[in-house]
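Thread: quick sanity check before group meeting

JM: Hey all, I'm pulling together slides for Thursday and realized we never actually wrote out the predicted structure for the chain we discussed last week. Dropping the sequence here so it's in one place. If anyone has concerns about the input, flag it before I start.
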Amino acid sequence: MNSEELLALLSAVGHAQRLRVIAELAGGRLYVSELARRLEMSRPLLYMHLDRLEKAGLVVGRLELSEDGKALKYFELTPFELKLNVATVLAALREDAAAGATPDERP
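JM (edit): ok, ran it. Output follows.
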């Protein structure tokens, strides 16, 4: 994991609404409309949060057809463990250096 990926992960879990999304999905996969109802959140806002979580690799979305032919987008958690310590930060910066990123190119 490089520093950009680490920052995306920290940003994804650094928001109360996204933590609520994770908590709801901990019970199993849900389609967007059901998740929005449970969280009392608009679908556009929920999609914004789901996009951040998906880019960080914490959730995955799949489009499926219902029995009546409607397209439903389901989201579920991916297995993850978040461990942040000095070693994690140093490893991310070493990954940047190995990839040839200069300090100015790092996030």
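AS: nice. Residues 70 and 106 are 43 Å apart (CA to CA). Strands lie at 30-31, 59-65, 71-77.
JM: adding both to the slides.
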